[in-house]
Backbone:
C-alpha cells in the first residue's frame, strides 16, 4: 500500500513522519474500503487531484494563446471588401482580381456560354447547382467566382477542359462555363463569394 | 549487445574526466569497440551517410540564415542575393538544395534495405518506428524549406499541401486558416515555415540520437537476419565499419559534388526562379522528386478526402510494417517469393514517382487511345498510378501478412559465420556480398 510505503521510504523529518501517521489515523476512522488494498479519499488525495486539475487547467489556458497566435491577426482579419468596375471586362473575357490574398475571376460571359451553362443545369454533377443560383438576377453575363480550385487551391486556367470553362493544371479538375465542377478530384463548384451590385457597373465584393 | 565497457583511460586527464563525465568511454564503446556483424554489406553504410547529410544540411542551413530574409517581400530577392552577391553563397545554397535530395536518396535506400533484410522485426520495432518518425520530420522540413525561396513552385506547393488539410470534414477549413495565419498563403505562412524549418532539423537530430540508442540496445541486423551468437560473428566497429562507412561516404560525396557543381538545378524546377504570384499557378505544378510517389497516390484517387487519406495511409503503412509482416524469417535472402514482391514493390514506387511527375491525362503509350473508365482513358498516367498505388497498398496490407503464413522459405544458416566457414557450397554465394541486391 502506498501510504505504508511513504512511512517506510527513507529517513524523513520526525515532524513529517508524525503528520503522515496522523493522516493514516484520520482515514482509518472513516475508511469505507479495505485499508490494505483500497484507495480511500483522503485529504492527501484531495490535494493531489486539486493541484493536478489546477495545473492541467492552467496548462490548457496557457496553451491557447500559443495556439491561437497562429490564427489570422487583426490586420489580416480587417481586410476590407473591394469594389470593382465591371465595365473593364469585355464580353467573353475575364479579369482576375486579388481579394483577401487570393484570385477572384470576374467573367463577362457570352450568350453562348450562358446558354450552355443553363442547358447543363440538369446534367449529372458532383455539386449540383443551377446556373441562375450562381449569378445575380438579370446579371447572368457576370459570373464572379473564387479563382482557386476547390481541390487543393491551384488557380485554374480559362479555356481548358471539355466543358468550355476552367481547367486546373494541378490535378486535372474541369469546371464548366458556370464554374461548376464537372470532372476531376475537386469536390465543390468554384466558390461564389458574397457580393452585390452597387450600380449597373459597380460591384462590391465581400 | 555492447556488454561491459572495455575502455581503459590512458592518460591522467582521461582518468580524471572518466570519473566525472564518461563521454570518451561512451564514444569508445559506441564507435570503436562496438561489435558489428562481420557480414554487413554496403547497403549498411547509409546510416553513416545519413548522419553526414544531416550535418551538411545543418551547417549550410545555419549559414544561409545569415543572409536570408524571411519576408514575402524580400525572401526571393535575398535568395538571389545569396546566389549572386554573397561570397560562395551559390555553393552553400546549391549544397543545401541538392543536399536535401541527397538526404532523400540515402534515406530511401536505407529504408529499402531495412525492408529487404527485415530490420523492422522483433526486437527492432522501436528502432524502425523512430526511423519512420525521422522520415516524417524530414518530409515536413523539406517541404517547409522548399517554400522559403518564395518562388512560384514554393508558393503554389505550399498552397496545395496546406489545402490537403482542408479535405478533413468539419475542422478542415479552420485548420488551413490556422496554418496560413490568414485567408491565403502569405507572409505569416512564410514566417512560421521559416521558424519551423529551423527548428525541425534539431528535432531530427534528437530523434537520430534515440534511433542510434535503440540500435545499440538491440544491435545491428545483418544480411542473414541471424543474430550474432559468438565472437566469431562480429568484428569491432573500428576499423571495420568506420573504414567501410568512410569509403561509402566518399563515393556518395562524389555523387553529391557532381550534382552541386555540374547540374545544380537538375532536380529543381525552373518555375521556382519566378517570384511567387498568387494569381497564376504554373501550368505544370509538381513537388520535389522525393514526394512524387505520394503525390501520384493523392491524384490516383478521384475523391479529395479519400485521396488525402490514401496519401497519409501510404506513410502509415510504414509505421505498421513491423506488425504487418508475419514471416518468422527476417531476411528476404531466404524468402524467395517475398524477394520477388520486394522488387515489384520497388518498381511500383518508381512507377508512382514517374506518374507523379506527369499530367494525369497524359498518355503512357503515345498515340494510343483505348476506352474511358472513371472519366479517364485507360492509357493514361492516372490509371498507371492507380495500378501502382494498388500494388503499394497490397504489398503492405495483403502480401506481407499472407505471405509470412504460406511461403516456403530457404534454410537459414545457424550463425553468421557458419555459411562462410563451414558450408563449402554456400561460401561463394556469401562471399560476393548479396549479388541479388546489386542494381
Residues:
Amino acid at each position: 500500500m502506498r501510504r505504508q510505503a511513504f512511512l517506510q521510504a527513507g529517513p524523513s523529518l520526525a515532524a513529517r513522519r508524525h503528520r503522515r501517521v496522523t493522516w493514516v489515523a484520520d482515514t482509518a476512522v472513516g475508511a469505507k474500503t479495505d485499508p490494505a488494498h483500497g484507495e480511500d479519499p483522503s485529504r492527501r488525495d484531495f490535494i493531489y487531484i486539486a493541484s493536478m486539475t489546477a495545473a492541467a487547467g492552467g496548462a490548457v489556458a496557457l496553451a491557447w494563446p500559443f495556439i491561437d497566435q497562429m490564427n489570422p491577426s487583426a490586420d489580416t482579419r480587417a481586410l476590407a471588401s473591394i469594389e470593382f468596375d465591371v465595365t473593364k471586362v469585355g464580353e467573353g473575357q475575364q479579369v482576375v482580381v486579388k481579394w483577401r490574398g487570393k484570385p477572384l475571376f470576374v467573367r463577362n460571359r457570352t450568350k453562348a456560354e450562358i446558354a450552355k451553362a443553363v442547358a447543363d443545369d440538369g446534367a449529372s454533377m458532383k455539386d449540383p447547382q443551377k446556373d441562375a443560383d450562381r449569378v445575380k438576377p438579370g446579371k447572368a453575363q457576370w459570373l464572379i467566382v473564387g479563382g482557386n480550385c476547390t481541390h487543393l487551391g491551384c488557380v485554374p486556367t480559362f479555356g481548358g477542359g471539355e466543358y468550355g470553362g476552367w481547367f486546373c493544371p494541378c490535378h486535372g479538375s474541369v469546371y464548366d462555363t458556370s464554374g461548376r465542377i464537372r470532372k476531376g478530384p475537386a469536390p465543390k463548384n468554384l466558390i461564389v463569394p458574397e457580393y452585390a451590385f452597387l450600380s449597373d457597373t459597380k460591384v462590391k465584393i465581400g | 549487445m555492447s556488454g561491459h565497457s572495455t575502455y581503459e583511460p590512458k592518460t591522467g586527464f582521461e582518468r580524471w574526466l572518466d570519473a566525472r563525465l564518461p563521454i570518451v568511454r561512451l564514444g569508445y564503446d559506441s564507435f570503436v569497440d562496438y561489435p558489428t556483424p562481420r557480414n554487413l554489406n554496403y547497403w549498411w553504410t547509409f546510416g553513416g551517410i545519413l548522419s553526414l547529410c544531416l550535418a551538411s544540411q545543418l551547417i549550410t542551413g545555419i549559414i544561409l540564415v545569415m543572409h536570408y530574409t524571411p519576408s514575402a517581400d524580400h525572401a526571393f530577392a535575398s535568395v538571389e542575393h545569396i546566389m549572386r552577391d554573397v561570397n560562395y553563397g551559390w555553393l552553400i545554397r546549391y549544397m543545401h538544395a541538392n543536399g536535401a535530395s541527397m538526404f532523400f536518396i540515402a534515406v530511401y535506400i536505407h529504408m529499402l534495405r531495412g525492408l529487404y533484410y527485415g530490420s523492422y522485426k522483433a526486437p527492432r520495432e522501436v528502432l524502425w518506428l523512430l526511423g519512420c518518425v525521422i522520415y516524417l520530420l524530414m518530409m515536413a522540413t523539406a517541404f517547409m524549406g522548399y517554400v522559403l525561396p518564395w518562388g512560384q513552385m514554393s508558393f503554389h506547393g505550399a498552397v496545395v499541401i496546406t489545402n490537403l488539410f482542408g479535405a478533413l470534414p468539419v475542422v478542415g477549413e479552420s485548420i488551413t486558416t490556422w496554418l496560413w495565419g490568414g485567408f491565403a498563403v502569405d507572409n505569416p505562412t512564410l514566417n512560421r515555415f521559416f521558424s519551423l524549418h529551423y527548428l525541425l532539423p534539431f528535432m531530427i537530430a534528437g530523434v537520430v540520437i534515440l534511433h542510434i540508442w535503440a540500435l545499440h540496445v538491440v544491435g545491428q541486423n545483418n544480411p542473414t537476419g541471424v543474430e550474432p551468437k559468438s565472437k566469431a560473428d562480429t568484428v569491432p566497429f573500428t576499423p571495420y565499419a568506420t573504414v567501410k562507412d568512410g569509403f561509402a561516404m566518399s563515393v556518395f560525396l562524389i555523387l553529391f559534388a557532381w550534382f552541386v557543381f555540374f547540374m545544380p538545378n537538375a532536380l529543381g524546377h525552373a518555375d521556382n526562379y519566378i517570384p511567387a504570384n498568387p494569381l497564376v499557378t504554373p501550368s505544370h505544378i509538381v513537388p520535389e522528386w522525393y514526394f512524387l510517389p505520394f503525390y501520384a497516390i493523392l491524384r490516383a484517387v478521384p475523391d479529395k478526402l479519400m485521396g488525402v487519406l490514401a496519401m497519409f495511409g501510404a506513410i502509415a503503412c510504414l509505421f505498421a510494417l513491423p506488425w504487418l509482416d508475419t514471416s518468422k524469417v527476417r531476411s528476404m535472402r531466404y524468402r524467395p517469393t517475398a524477394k520477388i514482391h520486394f522488387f515489384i514493390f520497388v518498381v511500383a514506387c518508381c512507377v508512382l514517382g514517374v506518374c507523379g511527375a506527369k499530367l494525369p491525362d497524359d498518355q503512357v503509350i503515345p498515340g494510343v487511345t483505348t476506352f474511358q473508365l472513371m472519366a479517364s482513358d485507360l492509357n493514361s498516367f492516372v490509371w498507371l498510378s492507380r495500378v501502382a498505388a494498388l500494388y503499394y497498398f497490397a504489398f503492405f496490407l495483403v502480401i506481407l501478412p499472407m505471405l509470412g503464413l504460406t511461403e516456403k522459405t530457404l534454410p537459414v544458416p545457424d550463425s553468421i559465420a557458419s555459411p562462410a566457414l563451414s558450408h563449402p557450397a554456400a561460401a561463394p554465394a556469401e562471399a560476393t556480398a548479396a549479388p541479388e541486391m546489386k542494381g
Observations:
- The two ends of chain B are 32 Å apart (CA to CA).
- The longest strand of chain B covers residues 35-37.
